[in-house]
Amino acid sequence: MAPRPRARPLPMPGPIEPDTPRLRLRQWREDDLTPFAALNADPDVMAHFPAPLQRQESDALARRCQALIAERGWGFWAAELKESGAFIGFVGLHVPLAELPFSPCVEVGWRLARAYWGRGLAAEAACAALRVGFETLELQEIVSFTTLGNLRSRAVMERIGMRRTEEDFDHPAVPPGSPLRAHCLYRLDRDGWGKRRG
Hints:
The protein has helices at 33-40, 55-72, 121-136, 151-159, 190-197; strands at residues 23-26, 76-81, 87-94, 107-112, 141-147, 163-164, 169-170, 182-189.
């Protein structure tokens, strides 16, 4: 079994801002807050979270993401479509705050506005985040997790080479009795990444 990842990789000397053919993953800006609040208020986008976010909650989340990138050089980046400059959501790497059964860990995650679903953008950006995690931060493993019913996100996890484990768990940040509490876990280690890249 591969060693567990470092919970907190060393900070980078400056922010990492990966590019993909269609996207820029970058530090957050003030003008991202309004479109971010709109996607966080969309019931379809937030269907697998306990509730949509109010504007104040959405702004606070964006500012936390911004602060972590400023501190570490990486995190949940703002995702911008190159062709239009439009903010479409976030994609990146994160150390979960909750104490999970497989902690310590680094996760890859994403949340895109509904207008940008179905175009392969989440997978494209997530692969760029994985590349940073394995090739720059030298993580041994990256995980991803979601509710059992979130088939869209689970399909992205499989598309980027992650494999579902048998380690389903109840997420401690979701209230007991909620149908969203049961989560499935996906993993990818450096060897698997290397084989995929090769």
